[in-house]
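Researcher: Sequence of Outer membrane protein beta-barrel domain-containing protein follows. Predict its structure.
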Amino acid sequence: MLSVDGEGNVRLNGQGNFKVLLNGRETAMFAQSVKDALNGFPGAVVSKIEVISSPSAKYDAEGIGGLINIITKKAIFGYNGYLGLHYSNINYSANTNLSFRKGRFAVTATYFLSGNHNNKAQVTSETLPVQTAAYQRRFLDGERITNRFSNSGILEMSYNIDSLQTLVLYANVDGGNNKSRFTQNITTSFTDKLPQEDFFTQNLKNNFPSYGLGSDFIKKFKGNPDKELSFRFNGQFSRNDGLNTSMLDMASTDLFRQNDSFSENREYTLQTDFIQPFSKELKLETGAKFIFRDANADYSSLSRTDEKSPFEPDYSNSDRFAYKQQVYSGYGSLSFALDKLNFRTGLRLEHTTVDGDFFSSKTNVKQDYTTLIPDFSVNTKLSKNYTIIMGYNKRLQRPYINALNPFINNNDPLNISFGNPDLNAQTIHNLSFQNRLASGNNFIALALNASYSGNMIVQYTIFNENTGVSTTQYGNTGRNREVSAMFTSAISLKKLNCGAYTTVRYNKIENTVVLTQHEEGFSGQVGGFFFYKPAKSFSLSGSGGISRQPYNLINTLKANPYYQVNIGYKFFNDKLSTTVNFNNFFSKSLTNRLYTEDVNFTTNATTTIPFRVVFVGATYNFGKLKEDLSKKKGVNNDDLINN
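Model: Prediction complete. Tokens:
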């Protein structure tokens, strides 16, 4: 159900909107960029990966694609650890881990970092208005150079009070920075005069430190090992400091801007869950959860038209806001069996309050709503290896700060964007039917899915024919219908594991306010993989395919191929693992092609990035390797839309 394209973008069930959890809880390391966090995350520490594509009432109502839960190795008897290093022509990473356990006490510590060096991207954008009152054609051609660094440290301590009670304390520290320089030539063509040549340059810097802490208490019950009571607390704290300086050199006048941004976020979660098995066929799960989010931000803008003049405040482009969101929820989920049919049905009730003040624009956001979230599934085994699963669930997506903020981004005066403080939550209905045939490590699955959202949160662009200004904004104006079929197979032979997967999707998305904006068509993915181990210490693996994302109202992406081959060898009784990887070796670069169509205009954009990547890496393990997975589950919040 998981796929990764040639740029490292992960999709779950074909969806790019999902939540990544670490040991069952949310951490700040995935808040900035899931792609970048996973690029640096150490694979050596991963025990297994769970995928929940149709969450029960136990889980938060939000999140379209589902949940990815990365479970790490921990609670090693004695001690063990590793040190890993990877380096390529575009990025690098390093990671280390140490686990120790003695008696009832266990400690696990992990640290990893990753970054890239002067990654260059060539960017073009062409806007063609149907009516040429403002201009006939606008073509932008530029280069973006990006440097990114991120690092994370995780510490976890667990203590088995007795055979039935476990206490877990954990903390994480994350951070990093982004730096980029963007230069662009702008050519504007007219019907009645010579083309106008403008030049735009932009420098961006931002730092994003964060940290979190929490605790879990899990109690089992004597005589009934499946009965469980748990209490959990989690706090996440993050900050983002940004500086955006730009210069637009136009034929008539110059425009210099300097935008400073500062934001801080605090999130507290309290959660309790109770599992009561009545029999082998009947189980009740119930619980409650409270999430409190508090965010503050300050955007200040300065501008001038002469490089020698001092900057003056631009109050129309400055903003300050405070935002509070509280989510109260409770749920009940019942699992039972009737003959050969296994049922799961549940209800989750969520009450949300939002209080936001955008001071500069004198805009206040007040929201108070209650949502009932049902879910239902049934499965049966027609044979020892063949299972059929059918299910329905309703999901919810709440808008978060960036989508609500009316702050106007107008570094390019002909391309502006802003949020919408009147956004409401979006709902989506999902139906699924799955066939699974599993025998040992051999696996075949066919899944059919359908979904509908009538108040989808979307970004859309309105083009003003008279001024030539493109305005991009948010709205609950999307209506999306989607059906898909997914087939996947995996075959395990003596020395070879291989498989193939394909997803065929058709979606139709419409703007219910701007009726001329709609897109529809087929998309999906076709690919395969193999892992060949002819000798104990030597392995050869690879994967590849072609993928295309679903249709959107803006920036629909064309199909792109990807492929990679990996050679691995182990030394010193498998303690030292080495690898050489060749990604997309036939193509030096990849050009992503995006388009937006409307009756008033069309925009075609390209981004050309490095595609041929060769990296080498090594991981050294030491200590004992016997594993005993922890009992804890952790807090999870799969509920924010943050485009």
